Amino acid sequence: MRENNYDDCAKALTAGRRIMELDPSCFKCLICIAKCYVHLGDVVSAEDAVEQAVNIEPDSPAFKKLRNDIEMIRDCTEQAKTAQNKGAHKEVLNLTNRGLAIAPFSIELKLLKAESLVYRGDPAEGFKLSSDALNCDQNNRHAAYVQGLSLYYLSELKTSKQLTLRVLKEEDEEAPTYKKAKKLYKTIEKIQRHIGDGNKHIEEKQFVEARDLFKQALNIDPSNKMLNSKLHYTLADIWIHQKHLERAYDSCSRALKLDPKNKKAQKLRARLLGE
């Protein structure tokens, strides 16, 4: 339990259960088991272990802190869910950080935090947290959705779509995760359709039609800055084909405003400035 990672905490629980099979009255083991469940954010199992321990040593001072920790995890989790449903992502981050200080291996708290990080403009960290959750539980559909959402905001549409499709195939249709995944999947399909058709028009040198499609694609999800930065870069390239260098320069500037790390837009704007 003291190794301080998810896998060892799970191993500690396995060892604890074996000890209880050998000695059902082992108070110290029950306290360790309760602490493991607290670290994992499993408040129901933690409460059950505490109640078993109370039956053995009713007056132990160990219960007060455990019960306070359990209550704190429960409150932070429920309040974070409510805040996320309202779109109050800053509040979610505050609540999940408080909860994770007590339950550092809680997959539920990590995923709530990861999803809000994505919407707060840090999809890379959201991807990292959701990947950690998937490593702990490969069948966790919420983790797969959040990872897909993170990849979407990192402009990795193909991989995002694959993960989202996996959620749609495995999740119950009435589950909140399914509804979120369905909305994301439709958005990705719409954007990909516009980009695909636009690229075909570019190949056929139908630049007006291509330009219109990429402009429409920009309006599908204005919140996806990295993707829209790439779309503005493509528009700059189209403007160059049409000999409108000032408009191309403006599109590059818009691309860099959304994503200052867009190297293609950096190089193209520098070239246009020289010309």
Helix content: over 70%
Whole-angstrom Rg: 25 Å
Tell me the number of helical segments per DSSP (H or I, 4 or more residues long). 14
Largest sheet: none
Question: Quick check: average pLDDT?
Answer: 94
Which residues form runs of ≥5 with pLDDT under 50? Answer: none
Instruction: Write down how many β-strands occur, each being a DSSP E stretch of 2 or more residues.
Output: 0
The SSE order reads HHHHHHHHHHHHHH
Strand content: under 5%
Distance between the termini: 64 Å
Describe this structure as you would to a colleague.
- The structure is a single chain.
- The protein has 275 residues and is an all-alpha fold.
- It starts with 5 loop residues before the first helix and ends with a helix.
- The radius of gyration is 25 Å and the shape is elongated.
- Helix 4 runs antiparallel to helix 5.
